């Protein structure tokens, strides 16, 4: 079967950084399903895994953690899906990614594809939706049905990006006042179109901008970009007893004591945790993807595709990686059809 992967970890400008492959089609066992891949999306995690290092693989490394496709076969212990079902999912960072014609994935982290979307539009959603959902409703502990949310606010740093585009929509479903950050006219426009009530500039101090729009502080912060860069701003902007969640690891030390006087909660989110550690509640990703799917079909939220490339091959994936690495991506980049 066709696939795109790597043997060497190289700069994206190098033709060998991602190469076209012909590899053996896998067979599902246990609770795995084999999915015929129709569309994929790229995420920053793809570029982080691919970033240059000296390691050389003896077997090709397949990237890609956003897939929409059709179930081809199921393992003997599967109970959630049957061949022919249309699905979408992000997969596991500890296994081969989905940039291949057929892909194995544990059914417990797979959702039913939104019926109202084609495969390309659906492929944009899984990783970012899981990340946003877990950040908002599990890590930050926001109750989506709490009527008191109307009195509360959230600051989403990087609101026009992949996760930000869906997080703003989910936060609005919870009736929060959503303040996004963006710095360019096109990203400000995108953030507002996807749910942000207000947009401030993440290159400037947060508190003065918040005061200009009538907010002394915010109850929640979701940081989707460069934790250490925004740390002091977040510590100043968060309300007493507020909560901050970040998805961006830091190579620099941060002063956690800045949060002490306000008794602020800080929590990390990594959507791969459940699959990586095979947690007892792994199936929650199946359930939350189905809830996202239902919300899409009910037109309560919408897909976040900005660009679609075709076909799925090394050349187009290198283009997508280069765009992500430039750091100015709005929404999601999707590839469809092998």
Automatic annotation (TrEMBL):
One Pfam family named in its UniProt record: ADH_zinc_N
Keyword Cell wall biogenesis/degradation in record: no
Keywords assigned by UniProt, alphabetized: Metal-binding, NADP, Oxidoreductase, Zinc
Natural source organism: Halalkalibacter nanhaiisediminis
Record-annotated Enoyl reductase (ER) domain positions: 14-335
Family: Belongs to the zinc-containing alcohol dehydrogenase family. Quinone oxidoreductase subfamily.
Protein name per the record: Zinc-type alcohol dehydrogenase-like protein
Transmembrane regions listed in the UniProt entry: none
């Amino acid at each position: 079967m066709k696939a795109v992967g790597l043997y060497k970890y190289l700069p994206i400008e190098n033709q060998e950084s991602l190469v076209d492959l012909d590899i053996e089609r896998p067979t599902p066992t246990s609770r795995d399903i084999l999915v015929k891949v129709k569309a994929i999306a790229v995420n920053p995690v793809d570029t982080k895994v691919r970033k240059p290092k000296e390691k050389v693989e003896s077997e090709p490394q397949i990237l890609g953690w956003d897939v929409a496709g059709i179930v081809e076969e199921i393992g003997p212990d599967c109970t959630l899906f049957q061949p022919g079902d249309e699905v979408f999912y992000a997969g596991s960072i500890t296994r081969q990614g989905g940039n291949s014609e057929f892909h194995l994935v544990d059914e417990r982290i797979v959702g039913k594809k939104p019926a109202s979307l084609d495969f390309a539009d659906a492929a944009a959603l899984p990783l970012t939706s899981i990340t946003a959902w877990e950040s908002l409703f599990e890590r930050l502990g926001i109750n989506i049905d709490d009527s008191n949310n109307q009195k509360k606010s959230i600051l989403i740093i990087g609101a026009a990006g992949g996760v930000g585009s869906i997080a703003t929509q989910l936060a609005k479903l919870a009736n929060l006042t959503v303040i996004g950050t963006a710095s360019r006219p096109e990203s400000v426009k995108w953030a507002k179109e996807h749910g942000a009530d207000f947009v401030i500039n993440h290159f400037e101090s947060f508190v003065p901008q918040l005061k200009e729009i009538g907010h002394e502080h915010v109850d929640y912060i979701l940081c989707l970009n460069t934790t250490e860069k925004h740390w002091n701003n977040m510590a100043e902007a968060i309300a007493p007893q507020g909560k901050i969640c970040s998805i961006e690891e830091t190579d620099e030390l941060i002063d956690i004591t800045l949060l002490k006087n306000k008794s602020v909660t800080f929590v990390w989110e990594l959507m791969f945790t459940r699959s990586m550690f095979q947690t007892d509640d792994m199936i929650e990703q199946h359930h939350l993807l189905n809830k996202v799917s239902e919300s899409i079909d009910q037109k309560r939220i919408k897909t976040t595709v900005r660009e679609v490339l075709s076909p799925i091959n090394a050349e187009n994936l290198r283009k997508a990686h280069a765009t992500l690495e430039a750091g100015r991506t709005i929404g999601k980049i999707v590839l469809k059809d092998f």
